[in-house]
Amino acid sequence: MLSLVEQIKKGKLWRYLGGVHPTENKSQSTSLAIAAVNLPSHLVIPVKQHIGGAGKIIVEIGDRVLKGQALTESDSFMTVPVHAPTSGIIENIGQYPSTHPSSIPELAIKIRSDEQDNAVEQLPALIYGQLSTAELQQHISQSGIAGMGGAGFPTAVKLSDRQPIDFLLINAAECEPYITSDDVLMREYAADIVQGIKILMHMIKPQICIIGIEDNKPEASQALQLAISAANQDANIVIRQVPTKYPNGGEKQLIKVLTGKEIGKGEIPAKSGIVMQNVGTVYAIKQAIIDRQPLLDRIVTLTGEGFSQPRNVRALIGTPVQHLLTEFHCKEAQTEALIYGGPMMGFTLPHSQFSLTKTGNCILAAGKNEVPQIREADACIRCGECAEVCPMDLLPQQLHWYSQAKDVDKLSDYNLKDCIECGACSYVCPSQIPLVHQYRIAKVELREHEDGIAAAAVAKEKFEKRNARLEQEKQQREQRQKDAAEKRRATTKASTGEDPVKAAMERIKKAKQAESAPKADAVAEAIARAKAKKAQATGDPDNSAVIAQREARKADIRARKAENAGTTESSSDSDTPVDAKKAAVAAAIARAKAKKSRTTEASSDSDSPVDAKKAAVAAAIARAKAKKSGTTEASSDSDSPVDAKKAAVAAAIARAKAKKVGLTEASSDSDTPVDAKKAAVAAAIARAKAKKAAQAQTEKSGDDPNPADVIEDAAPAVDPKKAAVAAAIARAKAKKAAQAQTENSADDPNPADVIEDAAPAVDPKKAAVAAAIARAKAKKAAQDKKVDTNRKVESEVARSAEPATKTDAKKAAIAAAIAKAKAKKLAQAGDK
Amino acid sequence: MAFRLASSPHNHIGTSTSDLMRKVIIALIPGIAAQWYFFGEGNLIHIVLASMTAIITEAVFLHLRKQPILNRVKDNSALLTGVLIGIAVPGLAPWWISVMGAVFAIAIAKQLYGGLGQNIFNPAMVAYVMLLISFPLQMTTWPPVSEITGFELTIWDTFSCIFTGATLDGHSAYQLIQNIDGMTMATPLDTLKNGLKLGNTVTEIQQQDMFSWLSGLGWEWVNIAFLVGGIYLLSQRAILWYIPAGVLAGLFLISAVFYLWLPDAVGSPVFHLFSGSTMIGAFFIATDPVSAATTPKGRIIFGAIIGMLVYIIRSWGGYPDAMAFAVLLGNMCVPLIDYYTQPRVYGHK
């Protein structure tokens, strides 16, 4: 079994399935020698003519440049610099239509030639045998060499010696019809090409170099063979004539034909030990290393019925296409389409105001007979000709169906990305379906789809990380709070000798006992509750349950007062902090109860205001107790037993009012009677107070109390209790207003809109301010109720007054706790 | 100056769908001529009837679907379907048989599925099966070869028989197919099958007049003529070799197996290859690109399935000739075949 190299040396060739045989049309342009082109008056050199990044422009408008001077510089091999093809002045650096199917404007440098064609100083030839591969790569890159076969890949990148290379393949196939630029280059410059091959062989050190040339180029083949023999390279360089078939000149196809290897999906040939270069690129490398001339010009085939004499010319990069058309007598009247490149893979130019690029190997002025008639595509009849000719063995008719259906999953299943857009399938389709056009569009859609998935994956990862971070922060916060509570407990224990938590638990137990002691009362209460429920259903107000509850409440309050009084009588100053602590604990209990009632009940709007009220009210009670036990405050008239009665009365009134609005307190009452009662009581008190205060204020300042005025008014009453109470009142009012409005417009206040405007975050002052604002808003809403159906106002009102969320109540509770703590501090200060 | 804008490639081989269909119709001419020579002008009249009906039906439906009529009809696909139906029905069948068949094929089996390129089943075969199941008597009254009948049918007789149900002499088609002994003459395949059921050997059965050196008298020449047409199509690259090779190889192989096992109890492979609608099925009916498999490997499998089903239904099914059923069953397998016979793409393992 011979090794691959030996098989190749014996002349073995492989085949691939597919390919078409379009009419060659090459003989028109090979009868004449390469012609020179007159110097154009101006040249437009695009900054990026290759795959990779654009170089950094190092000239400015008005600079005088010489032929061969670099116009851009690059810092990596993927960026290829461009050079001035002739001497002149930089006339402009700006956007010019790109020589590309899209004609999208791109950055280009316009040089006005000065007709002198002065070149930069000529450097001596490099002795490449003494230079390393990296140095030669640098020279090649700095000479602006990119692939001249049409793709424009930066040549220096391909020529690294990092990977072992077995085969250097020279692509001399030129399989597209009409194009003959490589053919005449080989005929006239065969010796230079062999020199270039020697440079490449020094750089990458392959086992053998194979020149793949189609068998329709016998003269070029002969010329190369003579040059190889003259340079004594017969052992290293072999010429293989491949059958004339399109697309034998495609990189993947030629590799298969010459070496039998297939380049895997997504891989580069270097991985299989193969480097392929176009003959034009090899010639340019020789010019760069030996002649020390950067890439300034190239051979272009001018052919087609539009040209009276098709031929090859040597044109400067950046030459305007119109200049070529004019100089070589293109009959524009007979030109149906101006194609840049060959008929199979070239693109049409809408006009001739483009410039020649490094990859432009042909300008085809196609006459009417040389391009297919424009006709509408028929339906696909599944004849399968396209699959017969596909050089990549794809199934073009399936790709057609799925690209029409935009089925991106199936398109990637059927390997749309492997399509090399050679055009063989469209060439043979009997229904003349523009298959390649459809695949180009489908490729874009496929790429967008995959980008979308990738972006979604990134977003998901970010989201999960953020969630994890928030979770972590929350846990840290809770941990800190727990530690702080522990510390507090420890310090109070140390300072007072009593464990406050234990004391609180005992108190709770006692309170529970007091509550549950009258069992008979509990039964009676249950009966009363049932009656109340029935009454609610039937519509008659049944007060017996309420009366019973009232009695129970009174007993409880009395018991508690006795307890407090007992503790205050028996205690000295040292008890004040205890009471304050007790108050703190009671506040905590109230919070917990509020939370419990919130979680046990369904989250119905009608219950939550009671929750919020409960919490705030309980907090208010706590504060009141704290005040009573230590602080000396004015207007603390909510503490005396007399107020309990008033509270009860006010509670009844409040309940009645609430019922009128539509709240159903019965269900909530049955669950936590004591809390509801307490809440209602304090709420009533609060409402009365706040109403008085508000009335006083409105009388003072007119219709709409300015928030600023309210601040001033509220300043003396920095009473935290008052603030929260006022907030509660305002909330109730606004809720009523909101409810009335919802009845009108059948629109629930958006819970999402609810933020805690009414519940101040930190400051009692801020609480007062917010309360005042809430009041103002409520008033405004009440005024605008009939007229303004603006949802914004409604939601604002709802937002400011809706205590329907847990956060609101929680914030209220927090605010209350903070306020109470402050009060305690004040109490301590006052005591001391 | 502005030039035309188009997407590459700017080159085309020059074939079109209508050219393709036209080539197929031209390749049918030898077979039609053989049929005319041996079985009379009946099929010619049916071809004309069916073609005209098919084109008119297609035009009507394209108009209903608001599609351009002239462009679509010009692609000759309706014409081809009509011709195939005309060839497939017995020569002396009433006129409404082929008309109904053509309408059914175009309207239901093709246009209702979405028009050209969208039908799952071969339209001509769908129509044939519909006719065969609905009108078994008319569809099995095959005219015998002119030589061995007692009657001489002129073209006017044929016309009369098709359009009025009786020849000028007043004979119905059914009467015409009875030979001198009063026995109803059937096709060679039918005769073979019935004879084998009665317990005769193949050698005995093939003593009858209607059998000849390859298969049945007349039928063998029709098949040879269609084979010639098929080879012409292959040379013109209008069809590819996968499907005909698959059909013929499948039929040959399965009949060879049984023939080697029971030589005198089954028809020989050659007999099967040149009887009935084998050749027209292999080259013209199964190769209908729209309803056939699309991948090369898949096409061979598709052809083989049809070939084997032809033999199975001929031998053990209820009908003497099975091409239509086999093709429809093959059409049903196409999506599965296509999915599992995808070729290996360059660079993939």
Secondary-structure blueprint:
The complex is a heterodimer of chains A (832) and B (349).
Chain A: H1 4-9, E1 35-36, E2 42-46, E3 56-57, E4 64-65, E5 72-73, E6 88-97, E7 105-113, H2 133-142, H3 155-158, E8 167-172, H4 181-188, H5 190-204, E9 208-214, H6 218-230, E10 237-242, H7 251-259, E11 274-278, H8 279-289, E12 297-303, E13 311-316, H9 321-327, E14 337-340, E15 347-349, E16 362-366, H10 385-389, H11 396-405, H12 408-413, H13 424-428, H14 435-496, H15 500-516, H16 519-538, H17 544-570, H18 575-600, H19 608-630, H20 641-661, H21 665-671, H22 673-701, H23 707-714, H24 720-745, H25 764-784, H26 791-801, H27 806-831
Parallel strand pairs in A: 1-13, 8-9, 8-11, 9-10, 12-16
Antiparallel strand pairs in A: 2-7, 3-5, 4-6, 6-7, 12-13, 14-15, 14-16
Helix pairs in contact in A: 4-6, 5-6, 5-8, 11-14, 16-17, 16-21, 18-19, 18-27, 19-22, 19-24, 19-27, 20-22, 21-22, 22-24, 23-25, 24-25, 24-26, 25-26
Chain B: H1 17-39, H2 42-64, H3 69-73, H4 77-88, H5 95-111, H6 123-134, H7 136-139, H8 155-164, H9 173-176, H10 188-198, H11 202-205, H12 219-235, H13 242-261, H14 269-273, H15 278-285, H16 296-316, H17 323-340
Describe the structure.
The complex is a heterodimer of chains A (832) and B (349). Chain A is an alpha/beta fold. Chain A is built from 27 helices and 16 strands. Helix content of chain A is 52%, strand content 10%. Chain A has a 6-stranded mixed β-sheet with strand order 1-13-12-16-14-15, covered by helices on one side. Chain A has a 4-stranded antiparallel β-sheet with strand order 2-7-6-4, with no helix packed on it. In chain A, strands 10-9-8-11 form a 4-stranded parallel β-sheet, sandwiched between helices. In chain A, strand 12 (297-303) and strand 13 (311-316) form a beta hairpin. The N and C termini of chain A lie far apart (107 Å). By secondary structure, chain B is mainly α. In chain B, helix 1 runs antiparallel to helix 12 and helix 6 runs antiparallel to helix 17 (323-340). Chain B has helices at 17-39, 42-64, 69-73, 77-88, 95-111, 123-134, 136-139, 155-164, 173-176, 188-198, 202-205, 219-235, 242-261, 269-273, 278-285, 296-316, 323-340. Classes of the chains: A alpha/beta (832), B mainly alpha (349).
